[in-house]
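Hello again, I could really use a second opinion on something today. My current little project is about how a certain protein chain folds up. You're getting the sequence in one-letter code plus the fold written as tokens. Here's the protein in full, and shout if anything looks odd to you:
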Amino acid sequence: MTMTLTTTTRITSDWPCQVKTPGSYDWERSATKWLRELVPARYGSYPALIRHPVLLARHAQIQVQHEIRVARTALQTARTELPLLGLPESVIEHTIKLYAAEVLQLQHIARSVRVVTEALVGHSTGR
């Protein structure tokens, strides 16, 4: 079962390149390091989150979902709120493109966190 998980997880385009293949030497450490980069620094130093990568992954999932909501809100309100700040149309258009790209990037990160979490859960239950 672990071999299937490893193969399935690794071959998807959602698997982050910063994380080693599940089951390989030190892969959990690479997953933990990557996940710590996704949460605010203070969370990445909490002992419980460091000792339990699955707990860190859960928090990263929540964090990324929150960031998606923030970016969507910024995107949805840009056309009405940014002109009130006196910004030129070119800056507003650029900002809208930036927010749209950020939403897509965050959605990809959310999928990556999901597959890493699944691998960590599979690894911890297989012990």
